[in-house]
Amino acid sequence: MMRYVALLRGINVNGITIAMNDLVETFQGLGYTDVRTVVASGNVVFSVDDAAQASPGAIKSRIEAALSERFDYEAWIVLIDEAELTREVRSFPFPEREGWHAYVMFGSDPTHLAELAGHARELDQADERIELGHGVLYWEVRKAVGIKSAFSKKSAKVKYRATTTTRNLNTLQKIITL
């Protein structure tokens, strides 16, 4: 058995509403087992039987096609195996600080993550910091600044919407403890 995590981009925002029960049913309909969701923002943990396992790219494509068909939107996910997600979470480079949010940005286009990481020197370190990881971008921001931060505005550009998705570190820690 192989455990994966699918991080869905852009659901339960901007008019794309998907009930978590429907999401579980969709994954089960694809033959995946032990399907669970974590918070209502599109985090699905599931198992793939070794005998029926396809490549991660094929699994990703199959899930995106099923989501697009069932929920009538252009689905895009990040698919990551449970062990890799655990490594990414444990590699978070910034110490936990009171009054700060910790995030991990995942992406399907490494050039977009590298481009976003290039903004590190422009950021006010008193408000936020970013650091490029292995296939992810780590970000911490003061809660008082939040979505009004310089990096939040840069990463929200339309150019990055189809290739990135961001998760709070607390959510990712809940996922890996399942």
The percentage helix is 25-40%
Low-confidence stretches: none
Counting DSSP H or I runs of 4 or more residues, the number of helices is: 7
Principal-axis shape equals globular
Strand order of the largest sheet: 2-3-1-4
Radius of gyration: 16 Å
CATH architectural label of the largest domain = 2-Layer Sandwich
How far apart are the first and last residues' alpha carbons, in Å?
15 Å
- CATH topology term of the largest domain: Alpha-Beta Plaits
Sheet with the most strands? 4 strands, antiparallel
In sequence order, what are the helices and strands, one letter per element?
EHEEHEHEHEEHHEH
Please indicate the percent range of residues in DSSP E strands (runs of 2 or more). 25-35%
Instruction: Tally the beta strands.
Output: 8
Helix/strand/pairing class, anyone?
alpha+beta
Question: What does this protein look like?
Answer:
With 178 residues, this protein is of the alpha+beta class. The protein has helices at 20-29, 56-71, 82-90, 110-117, 150-155, 158-161, 169-176, and strands at 2-8, 33-37, 43-48, 77-81, 100-107, 128-132, 136-142, 164-168. It folds into two domains: 2-84, SP0830-like domains (Alpha-Beta Plaits, 2-Layer Sandwich); 91-176, bacterial protein sp0830 like (Alpha-Beta Plaits, 2-Layer Sandwich), CATH 3.30.70. α3 crosses α7. The mean pLDDT is 91. Helices cover 34% and strands 27% of the residues. 28% of the residues are buried. The strands form two sheets. Strands 2-3-1-4 form a four-stranded antiparallel beta sheet. The chain has a four-stranded antiparallel beta sheet with strand order 6-7-5-8. The radius of gyration is 16 Å and the shape is globular.
